[in-house]
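Blinded run. Sample ID left blank on purpose so nobody reads anything into the name before looking at the predicted structure. Input follows.
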Amino acid sequence: MIVIVGAGPAGIAAALQVREFGLAFTVIDDNPTAGGQIWRGDADRTRMLGGELRTGTRVLSIDAAAHTLLVEDADGARWVPYSKLILATGSRELLLPFPGWTLPGVFGAGGLQALVKSGLKVGGKRVVVAGTGPLLLAVAALLRAKGANVRLIAEQAPVSALAGFAAALLRRPAKLLQGAGLGWSLAGVPYLPNCWVTSAEGAGQVERVTLRRGAKTLTEECDYAAIGYGLVPNDELRTLAGDSEDVIVAETGDVEYAWLAGEAAGYRAAGRPLDESALVAARAFDAALQGAFALRPELRELAAPETLVCRCEDVSYARLAAWGSFRAAKLQTRCGMGPCQGRVCGAAVRFLFGWPDTSVRPPAFPARIASLAIQEPVTNGDKL
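Blinded prediction complete.
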């Protein structure tokens, strides 16, 4: 049995490829519906997985030597066997701390996008979209289509970097057309390169943000602020799996890249040869994108000494700065040991201090005590 973890574009592509080869597979995902962040709630794209999809199922641990996963769902935990394991776990948003970032109404750009897709009403709300990358345009376009008053889009990348990325777009006509469509839908919304949010203020709710653009400072009144600094891979399970040849990782990127990476993972799981020319081209475009929207060093200076970096455990920047590694900071401050298990602050401290997180261990996600009591891999995964 081929087990695919993740039901976003990469996981769906891998599943469809494996199905085409006539092999048995199961897709598991911890969300209540398939589609990932990009196709959240898009039943037309996800119903094709049929009975091989198991949502609401979380992978807690991987025993690569025994070819088993410890999974947990509403009914409890069990070990699930696999012959090949495809990890299509996607990415999460990078959030960087600044004064006021914990105020209600301040979201990640992708976070607000997901909430709107799930039904959050934003009609008439004043929204500032800021951070970096093409996702900002997609988020702003969705917000505007839902009736929000998008006040401005602040892109931290300088004009020179954006010009280089525009040249790369000329070699990808489909991407260029997509970008032009987003630009058309956002006509009249100010797009400010070389600009980033430095603080948010409000009485119990965000009411305004302050932005820096070059040597200038400006303030914008808003009801919501959507601020995201790109994506970082969800690589906890990859770390737990180690270097097992029976574990295949689908690369992460935009939807086209993810789809091609998922197809390639399906080929590898089936042991079939693959022409990777399209994936190589997508990988090159992704590299150009990452270079164009690289984070500027000034963003490391946003947090004040009292600014919380770890929101789960209320750990400030000043407390973290006293230590020399993420492990030491965890032991002394509990940074990264709260409910999110470092998925927000871990990537932030990696950028702020250059600390890699080398402390990933099972369970990969918060789990029931009863689930942790299952010690030995047992092939009782018949539910899947």
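Unblinding after everyone has recorded impressions. The longest strand covers residues 149-155.
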